[in-house]
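[#protein-structures] MJ: dropping ThuA-like domain-containing protein here for a structure pass
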Amino acid sequence: MRKAMIVWGGWPGHDPDLCASMIRGWLKAEGFEVRIETTTAAFADPAIHDLSLIIPIYTMAKIEKAEALNLCAAVRSGVGLAGHHGGMCDAFRDSVDYQFLCGGQWVAHPGNIIDYKVDLTKPDDPIIQGLKSFEHRSEQYYMHVDPANEVLATTTFTGEHASWIDGVVMPVVWKKRYGAGRVFYSSLGHRAYELDVPEIRTLMTRGMLWAARE
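AK: finished. structure tokens for ThuA-like domain-containing protein:
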């Protein structure tokens, strides 16, 4: 049986406990044994090197250097990493090791909760296949991203809330390699209920399975 670990905590505004419960259910339905932890100390556990998948849901907060380095080493050795929104890419802002692992870092969401479009850019990719671009109402994440990411979905900023970014095309969903490990990220899912949007749920489920090397 494949094993996954969800680590949730940090800022409560992203419903980390509810998201952890939802994602745990999805993974169990896919045949995973799922361990849930609520402190970053879990990332320092040598046993994480034996997992198939790690899901951080930990907005902001801090991670100890040794914890970050053990997490990076686990993924580099072949453990998958997957996550969404600020729970993965607005976590541990002072850890460049962690940011290098994830492939991006949140920096702004101009206009806060707004309507925007998610454009799926690689229709033949197994994570995207059969889905169509869709409208969404939430935070439109502006991120600093790794050019090595394989981008699967984007969004385009209008400039309505920050005129100098008018027309900027921003990655929304990506996958990447980190050593022997696979990393998947979706910036969608500001609140737990958004994870039940069919497109978002499908992207997350497929992305986690890809990262875990189904």
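MJ: nice. The chain has a mean pLDDT of 98.
AK: one more thing. The helical segments are 16-29, 65-76, 85-89, 96-102, 198-211.
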